[in-house]
Amino acid sequence: MKFGFDIDDTLLNLREHAFRIYNTKLNKQIGIEVFHALTTISVHEAFGLTVEEGREMWKSHRDEIYFSAPPFPDAVEVLQELVRQGHEIYYVTARSAEHCEKTKEALELAGFPVQDGRFYCGMGDLEKVHIIRTLGLDYYFDDKPAVLDTLTELELQLYAKDNPYNKHLGIPRIVNWRELLGHLPGGTDA
Ligand SMILES: [Mg+2]
């Protein structure tokens, strides 16, 4: 079967990583519980920054955040296991074109299975639906409500990667990546 994955905040723990980096750069010690209470995709609110200041902060540190964000626990191992079981893995990320090559390399470096021709990057959030439909994915995983909302009519198994800002969506969700193996036909999450 064909499995498609968003990258940021689906496979990589990007927001929490950004939160930690902002703490360091701004010389603050905002507690992680403040991060967990955030219901916005952006994290600058936790530091009392305005939208404009938040945008500047993100722009200044985006590369560092992108290329040092760690995978969520078991994400690498579960995707490797899917490949072992004979499945195809696709990545569909809206990171901008200038970051695509390095993003692909960083995924490989982190141990994610990246196969030729199965890495899609640089589209807008609302263009993902066209790629996902064309690829004929059987499963797709994303965190962003604006993306997930465009995919509900497709004939595939759609999952939200659980995050505070997508709790309102009434679709199946993955909290920990190990759960995915248990959702497969005949699968176990052992
Ligand atoms: Mg995402």
From TrEMBL:
The lineage of its organism: Bacteria, Bacillati, Bacillota, Bacilli, Bacillales. This is Nucleotidase. Keywords: Hydrolase. Its EC number is 3.1.3.-. GO terms for biological process: deoxyribonucleotide catabolic process. The keyword Hydrolase applies. Pfam families: NT5C. The active site is at 6 (nucleophile), 8 (proton donor). Signal peptide: none annotated. It comes from Cohnella luojiensis. One of its GO terms (molecular function) is 5'-nucleotidase activity. It comes from the Bacteria. Belongs to the 5'(3')-deoxyribonucleotidase family. The keyword ATP-binding does not apply.
